[in-house]
Amino acid sequence: AIYLEYEGDKNNNKVPDLEEIGIKYLKGDGDFRSDECIELLKQADVVVTNPPFSLFREYVAQLVKYEKKFLIIGNVNAITYKEIFKLFKDNKLWLGASIHSGDREFGVPDDYPLKAAGYRIDNNGRKFIRVKGVRWYTNLDYKERHEDLILYKKYSPEEYPTYENYDAINVNKTKEIPMEFKGHMGVPITFLDKYNPDQFEVIGLGISNSGKEIGVKPYKEEHKLYRKNIQKRGAVDGDLYMITNGEVNVPYARIIIRNKRL
Asked: Residue 56 and residue 135: Cα distance in Å, rounded?
């Protein structure tokens, strides 16, 4: 494994030329958990990278341990990881400014199997895949993060049902957060794309053990049986759910918030 070391522009052309970039060889395979990579990390002011998604929790934990500023790419569902969500709640981590939807293209090695839903090979034979649901994760602040989300909808119990096992209303889209509602609200995890910590407080995450920690009640026995036997779906205590037209309705992961301005 190698790493590159750039010490600045030496010929005043304002471009990092090949002769200005030093190629250094590592003793190991470049695993971020190795001693030599940790020593390099200690020298860094800001870390910008695309870590392995399967080791995302461990990688972020390392950055936090060494108190590094960072801007890294991860899957949007990493928001629901207990360790990652706690950083969001404690205002130590947030989503970056430039990716809020869609998928992104990544270059892959020549021997990488092209099994993704979207991929291409360019004119030079280089392989690329498209990955859905990626976001920038960062602890670098920026102006847009403190812009208010404009609210226009009014609350009605018909449009915003209350959960069966937690005192909060369900909101299906971030843009539909009711402007005058003072209580707790369950919003999609993509709410964090628009989250302004000056406007909203994050209470918790309404799934599994994270839900239990904020007071989400277990399934009522009759609802659990209906979920398992009739709907043939899982029934995890701690998950938020509603009763809609007599049926158990479990929305995808919800973040519980409240409007700090009310």
From this structure: 12
- pLDDT value of residue 18: 84
Torsion angles phi and psi, residue 208, rounded to 5 = 50, -135
CA 211, CA 200: separation in Å to the nearest integer?
A: 19
Instruction: Identify each DSSP E strand in 76-217 by its residue range.
Output: 94-95, 103-108, 118-121, 127-132, 134-138, 169-170, 185-188, 200-205
Q: Quick one: pLDDT at residue 59?
A: 98
Phi-psi region of 241 (alpha: psi -120 to 50; beta: other; left: phi over 0): beta
Distances (CA, A) of 6 to 22, 44, 156: 6, 13, 58
Distance CA(175)–CA(164), nearest Å, equals 23
Integer Cα distance of 9 and 7 in angstroms: 7
Q: How far is Cα 96 from Cα 57, in angstroms, rounded to an integer? A: 17
Band of pLDDT at residue 146, cut at 50, 70 and 90: very high
Torsion angles phi and psi, residue 137, rounded to 5: -115, 130
The rounded distance, in Å, linking the Cα atoms of 32 and 107 is: 20
Task: Identify whether the C-beta of residue 183 lies closer than 8 Å to the C-beta of residue 237.
Answer: no
Report the alpha-carbon distance of residue 103 to residue 81 in Å, rounded: 21
pTM: 0.89
Nearest to 94 by CA among 213, 175, 194: 194
pLDDT tens digits, one per residue of 71-118: 999 999 999 999 999 999 999 999 998 887 777 888 888 888 888 778
Please name the residue that has the structure tokens 């609802």: 223
Residue 226 has pLDDT above 90, yes or no: yes
Q: Which residues pair with 153 in a beta bridge?
A: 178
